[in-house]
UniProtKB/TrEMBL annotation:
Family according to the record: Belongs to the UPF0312 family.
PANTHER family: PROTEIN YCEI
Organism superkingdom: Bacteria
Pfam families: YceI (PF04264)
Name this protein carries in UniProt: YceI family protein
Xref: SUPFAM superfamilies: YceI-like
Domain named Lipid/polyisoprenoid-binding YceI-like: residues: 2-130
InterPro entries, per the entry: Lipid/polyisoprenoid-bd_YceI, TTHA0802/YceI-like_sf
Length: 134
């Protein structure tokens, strides 16, 4: 059986990439023409306990107040061998429409979901990039 995961990647300190995944989620079958998933934000795993704890804090996801991230599809279009899935993504009680492609390269997404913490670097730029691949 093929292992599935919800992964992300974000540029850190303007040069390195931090990759991680959510280890706990609920995903329905694409062939039903409706995709819904919910995952436990506290399950975030970037392979750095200190970073994961910071991401769980009020600075980022505030898992005590907002324990889940949800997605509900509103449209699925076949694009060759791939699919484009459009739907409502909810993070920290902010819901916005997003479109994901099912290709192996992911999709870059930038949305305002109340994730506003950041820090300026002495060399210019910011600690956490706004472009996130999901």
């Amino acid at each position: 059986m093929e292992e599935k995961s919800i992964q992300f990647e974000v540029k850190h300190m303007m040069v390195s990439k931090v990759r991680g995944q959510f280890d706990s989620y609920d995903l329905t079958d694409l062939t039903t023409a409706s995709i819904a998933f919910e995952f436990d934000v506290a399950s975030i795993n970037t392979h750095s306990e200190d970073r994961d704890n910071h991401l769980r804090s009020e600075d980022f996801f505030d898992v005590e107040k907002y324990p889940t991230i949800t997605f509900q599809s509103t449209d699925i279009q076949k694009d060759g061998d791939d699919y484009e899935v459009t739907g409502d993504l909810t993070i920290k009680d902010v819901t916005k429409p997003v479109t994901f492609a099912t290709n192996p390269w992911g999709v870059e997404v930038y949305e305002e979901f109340g994730l506003t913490w950041n820090a300026a670097l002495e060399t210019g730029g910011v600690l956490v990039a706004k472009d996130i691949k999901i």
